[in-house]
Amino acid sequence: MGKFYRKLAALSVVTLLISVVVFSSVFFGIRGIYADNYQKGFVYQYRALQKADQNKPKIIVLGGSYMTFAVDSRQLGEESGMPAYTLGIHSGMGMCYILETAEKFIGKGDIVIMPFFPFTENDYGMDLIFVSMDSEPDLFFDFFRQHPLQVIKSSGAAAYTKLYGLLYSLQRYIRHKEDGSASVVYNAGAFDPDTGNLIYERTGCIAGEQDLYIKKVYEINDIDTNCYNELNEFAEFCKGKGASFYLTHAPIFEGAVISSDEEINLYQEELEERLPVPFLSDLREVLMPLEYIYNGAMHMNDAGKRYYTHKLYEDLSKYIDFSKE
């Protein structure tokens, strides 16, 4: 019996080694597949924070695409007089990943802002995370050091994604197929490489009714308890670093929300009870008119971005005297 188990163990080790070799060959050997991908915006944001003066207080706005479409870090910086940055290109990357990435850059005097967005424990969208790590080995090894089992478990899917990306790129090259105007916003060229700001011109609204009237309900029972725990731990982390952490709400098209005022009140009261962190705004204040919407209920156009960024500054000004910064 012992001989059998030794053989099984040896077979397992060999299989693991083969998997590692195949994954490494595909993941690191095939590079630049996603050089024009939307996830490149996250790399730009990450590098901008890397280059920031860590001894100088700054503003960091976290979140998914709803904040990338709604916040102009340069405008926020100009209005507040503090350097400002965004981090988080796609909510599908997972809020846990966004939070732990932000922790690398948080220092004394920093202001960290995040719209409340329900998420679960171990919220890591590995497919999108791997895409953002394409040709960025330092991001990969940094994540691997923290989550080796997470990488190993998802390595097969990562290799498949890389191969699929290669075939898709070849297909586009052969056919000389260009992206349509509606999807141009979802590639690297839509971002400012220096800041990670979304700079693709977005005027008017191009969303169809199915993308706008999504019947959004704010229901407290839908929120995982671990979400509160993660955010409270993050708030304690910020406090330990001498930084201030604020929550807010992401903008959304007013016609997409079907919750009543009473339901919204109950939702906000419960959030404030479970998350003893200042909320910068009331949910009703971020219900946006159609004139501010671009290609989805939570994606702002340029007018909406300017409005929401200014509102963020005004909301912060209730807590912080920027004239002294």
Number of strands: 8
CATH superfamily of the domain at 41-123 and 197-324: SGNH hydrolase
Helix content: 40-55%
Radius of gyration: 21 Å
What gap, in angstroms, lies between the N and C termini?
Answer: 72 Å
User: How are strands sequenced across the largest beta sheet?
Assistant: 2-1-3-4
Mean pLDDT: 89
Global geometry: globular
Question: Order of SSEs, N→C?
Answer: HHEHHEHEHHHHHEEHEEEH
Give the CATH class of the domain at 41-123 and 197-324.
Alpha Beta
Strand percentage: 5-15%
Low-confidence stretches: none
Largest sheet: 4 strands, parallel
Structural class: alpha/beta
CATH architecture annotation of the domain at 41-123 and 197-324: 3-Layer(aba) Sandwich
CATH topology of the domain at 41-123 and 197-324: Rossmann fold
Q: Please work out how many helical segments DSSP would assign.
A: 12
Structural notes for this entry:
The chain has 325 residues and is of the alpha/beta class. It has a domain at 41-123 and 197-324: Rossmann fold (3-Layer(aba) Sandwich), CATH 3.40.50.1110. The chain has twelve helices and eight strands. It has helices spanning 2-29, 40-51, 65-68, 73-80, 95-103, 126-132, 137-146, 148-175, 209-212, 225-240, 261-274, 302-317, and strands at residues 59-62, 84-87, 111-115, 244-248, 252-253, 287-288, 293-296, 299-300. The chain has a four-stranded parallel beta sheet with strand order 2-1-3-4. A two-stranded parallel ribbon has the order 5-6. Strands 7-8 form a two-stranded antiparallel sheet. Strand 7 and strand 8 (299-300) form a beta hairpin. Helix 4 packs parallel to helix 12. The radius of gyration is 21 Å and the shape is globular. The mean pLDDT is 89.
